[in-house]
Structures are given as C-alpha cells and as structure tokens.
Amino acid sequence: MKAEVFVTAARDRGFDFYVGVPCSFLKPLINYVISDPQTAYIGATSEGEAIAIAAGAWLGGRKSTVICQNSGLGNTVNPLTSLNYPFRIPLLFVTTWRGQPGLKDAPQHELMGQITGELLSLMKVQHQIFPKESEAVQSALDEAAAIMAEHSLPFGFILEKGTLSSETLTQAPLAQYPPGKPEKRLTGNPPPQRIEALKAIVDSIPDRAALIATTGKTGRELFTLGDRPQQLYVVGSMGGASAIALGAALQVNIPVVAIDGDGAALMKLGNFATIGFQAPDNLIHILLDNGVHDSTGGQATMSPWVDFGAIAIACGYRSARSTDDLGIFAEFVTLALQQPGPHLIRLQIQPGSIDNLGRPTISPEQLARRFRTFLTHSKEEAAS
Ligand SMILES: Cc1ncc(C[n+]2csc(CCOP(=O)(O)OP(=O)(O)O)c2C)c(N)n1
Questions:
Q1: Mean per-residue pLDDT over the chain, rounded
Q2: What is the pLDDT of residues 304-325, one digit of tens each?
Q3: Has residue 177 got a pLDDT over 90?
Q4: What number does the ligand 1 atom closest to the CA of 260 have?
Q5: Which of 180, 187, 224, 361 has the most neighbouring CB atoms within 10 Å?
C-alpha cells in the first residue's frame, strides 16, 4: 500500500502533524511525510521526546501522530503513563513490529517483538494492526478516531514489515543559524530562591504568554504563587516540559515559556537539539538551576559541570544567557520577549522550597483542557 493513502486519510481527519524517530519498516511513511508539503514532520531525538512534542502540539490545538520503532516503546513509557494518561492527551501512534514472532529479524528485536501489543495494552493504549489494504484505511482511522474521542487517550497502529511500498525522500537542506555566543552575567552574590525566580517570571512576562512548569516543586510553587489558565504544571514526564513547550510553540504566536529544572533538563538533553533545530521564535526556555534534585531531597545533579548556555548555542538557540541575579534575570526575560528565539535563560537559584507548598488542586485532565482552551483562543484572537 502507498503511504499516501494513510497520510491523506489521516489528514482528512485533521492529523497533519507528525513527530517521530525512524525505523526501516517506517521508511515509506516517514519519507512520505517529510517530503509532503501539506504535512509537518518533526524529527525527535527520542521516542519519549516525540510523545511530549506531540502532546504539546495537541495542547496547541493540533491533532498529532507519533511514528516510531517498537524498540523505542521503552522510551515512550514515561510520557505515555505520566503525561498522556493523567492529562488525557490523545494522539495517533504508529509503531513498527520489529521482531514479530515468526519473522526473521535481528536479535535485539526478539523480546520487544513478543511484547509489543501487551506493552501497549498495559499502558492503556488501544491498538490494532496497521491496515494492509487501501480499502481498510478509512474505517481503521474512523475507529481509531472514535476510540480516541471516547477515552481521550492515544490509539496505536502496529505496522508490520512490508505493509507500505517504498517512497523517495525529499529533504530540505538544514538551515544555517548565525553563530551565537552564550552570555554570562554572574555577580557571585547569594542566588535567589525558586519562588522569587517564579515571581520574577510571572511579573516579567505578559498575561498573553503561556507558562509550562517542570515536574516537582517548580510546578507546585508556581501553583502556590497563583493559579492561572495560561499555566500548565507538568506533574510527571520529567524532562518533558521543554518538549511540550516546543510542540505548543509551533502552533501559536504567543510567547511560550518552559520553566525547567537542571535535573529535568539533563534527563532529556536531546530536547535542546530539537528546539534549536526547529527554532520557534516564540519559545523561551528558562532553566532554574539549583544544582540538585531538590524535589526529591536535594541529591546533587551534574549541573555544576555542565555549561547549559554553551549547549543551547551549540544546538542552535538564538541566545543563551546565564545569571545568578534576579534583576539581571528579569532583564534577560524582557530581552527574550523582544527578540526572536528560541532563547535559553539560566538562573542559578538556591536549593530549597517554601513552607506550606501546595499541589495543583485541579486534575491534570482539567488543567490540560483549560490550557488548551487558552492556547487555541490565542490563535483565534490572532486570526480575528
Ligand atoms: C522519570 C522520572 N524519574 C524520577 C522522578 C522523580 N523526581 C521528581 S522531581 C525530581 C527532581 C527534579 O530535579 P530538577 O529538575 O533539578 O528540579 P528541582 O527538583 O531541583 O526543582 C525527580 C528525580 C520523576 N518524576 N520522573
């Protein structure tokens, strides 16, 4: 079957945004969506990142599809279970079936081939075999869409070897970014507390900007400071906040601000490369760097050895600024709002948190819908 049959039928149902990591079984589908000007394709550094970007795109009002090899299912477990499930974020999920029992395949696919369907079922991802005949595609997609609408969860198609006929790849040349330089303005004074940093962010950005806060105490402190519809507290999916922000930023014209932790950023360092490459000019990636996993008791991270600004610039961010001072930080945020991004702003903060730290009282499911409404309204306002 031609990949076009599936892609066209999916697009007719609103699915025109693909995120993925390649597999040789997927080559026709990936090559087709990369080459098709009517379809967006974001290459991710890992399958987990792909899920988070797709979730961000859904929050931004876009129906999205993740395509990957079943070897990468392990990488999707964290976001599928701690992001899509609690926040009830649907997506179309196409995974290959390397190591399908009875198929001669490489040894590294044997076990995953045996458990692919079971693993999806365990993660409450309903699934079926990717349709093999053109005539079956429309009804399979209708069924997938109906199930996604009913449960608001991902639906999977398992793609068997040889289902799709080959496609040629037409790839745009890689963009060239002007070489930047990371900027550091360190005072050596005691750095601020996280809560002061969050207050500075809220005070420095306009109300029309969206804020996506990483897991742990960052989201809890932001909620405790004051709950607002433009704020999303990513309670799980550690490291996913910046990828969610990327997926969302690509859909909207308002500033989208990811508030990351050093532990979370290090967990998904690949996100920097995808953000730098996709280069949404409305994305501001703020890193509150306390050098520890503060939320779990203050265990050290490797952040003192890591130059996040240099990494961001090397990955194609338009600017990367670092400070330990709240006043300079606020200046950096204001600059980032005025200049095209993506920007990294790293603020050194003290470990520790406030007393009487709250937890979001709204369910993740409601939170996601409130945030999605905020983002989609911003698009409607921009269009009117
Ligand atoms: C995949 C995963 N592993 C571990 C955890 C447990 N956990 C929750 S918050 C956190 C620390 C996050 O550290 P950092 O990003 O530096 O933020 P901080 O807590 O310092 O604000 C950890 C390890 C988790 N939520 N998810």
A1: 96
A2: 999 999 999 999 999 999 999 9
A3: no
A4: 15
A5: 224
> What's the CATH fold of domain 183-378?
Rossmann fold (3.40.50)
Q: Which of 259, 294, 349 to mutate to test the pocket of ligand 1 (most atoms within 8 A of CB)?
A: 294
Q: What angle do CA 189, 192, 198 make, to 5 degrees?
A: 150
Q: Where are the domains of the chain?
A: 3-159, 183-378
- pLDDT tens-digit profile of 69-98? 999 999 999 999 999 999 999 999 999 999
Buried b (16+ CB within 10 A) or exposed e, 317-330: bbbbbbbbbbebbb
Query: CB of 261 closer than 6 A to ligand 1?
Result: yes
pTM over 0.70? The answer is: yes
CA separation for the pair 120, 76 (Å, rounded): 10
**C-alpha separations of 185 from 303, 324, 335, 347 in Å:** 17, 8, 14, 10
* 218 in contact with ligand 1, CB cutoff 6 A: yes
Would you say the CB of residue 353 lies under 6 angstroms from ligand 1? no
The alpha-carbon radius of gyration of the chain (Å, integer) is 21
- Asked whether the domain spanning 183-378 has the same topology as the one spanning 3-159, the reply is yes
Which of these, 42, 69, 70, 67, lies nearest to 56 by C-alpha position? 42
Instruction: Give, in order, the Cα–Cα distances in Å from 277 to each of 43, 46, 221, 280.
Output: 10, 15, 31, 9
Residue to substitute in 293, 349, 359 for testing ligand 1 pocket (most ligand atoms within 8 angstroms of CB): 293
> Quick one: CATH architecture of 3-159?
3-Layer(aba) Sandwich (3.40)
Q: How confident is the model at residue 379 (pLDDT cuts 50, 70, 90)?
A: confident
Q: Are residues 303 and 363 in contact, defined by beta-carbon separation less than 8 angstroms?
A: no
